[in-house]
């Protein structure tokens, strides 16, 4: 495995290009502590799964064990410690397998708008409100104008 490039950030650095062959996952991790800035208080554990996936990449690349990490919620300025227990590791591996099956199917799932879409970093790429079957183009445009 090639050594990742390093970028200086103040008194610490970040490694670019972490990846895991077994998970097929790429990542960006900060040195010493995995801190991933997120929206405040998600209702599910998708943030923890993402952080665990990053830790699994580092474990595989560096042949080390990473028992925990932390999420930092910028809006609330709160930090949440995350233990990478067996259940979270299994859920993370399952999510990676499901993602690879989806990619192999070569089918893009239709976006479904839910309230959690507002905090998703892919909201402006996915555009879940544009493809909802319940709305006509006229209804969508009216809604888009009223939201502006």
Arrangement of strands in the largest sheet: 1-2-3
How would you characterize the largest beta sheet? 3 strands, antiparallel
Order of helices and strands: EEEEHEEHHH
Report, as a whole number of angstroms, the end-to-end distance. Answer: 48 Å
Domain module tally = 2
Describe the structure.
- The protein has helices at residues 46-62, 86-105, 123-126, 137-147, and strands at residues 5-9, 12-20, 25-30, 35-38, 68-73, 78-83.
- Strand 2 and strand 3 (25-30) form a beta hairpin.
- It has 2 domains: 5-107, no CATH class; 110-148, no CATH class.
- It is built from 4 helices and 6 strands, in the order E-E-E-E-H-E-E-H-H-H.
- Helices cover 35% and strands 24% of the residues.
- The strands form 2 sheets. Strands 1-2-3 form a 3-stranded antiparallel beta sheet. A 3-stranded mixed beta sheet has the order 4-5-6, covered by helices on one side.
- With 148 residues, the protein is α+β, with helices and mostly antiparallel strands.
- The longest helix is centred in the middle third of the chain and has 20 residues, at 86-105.
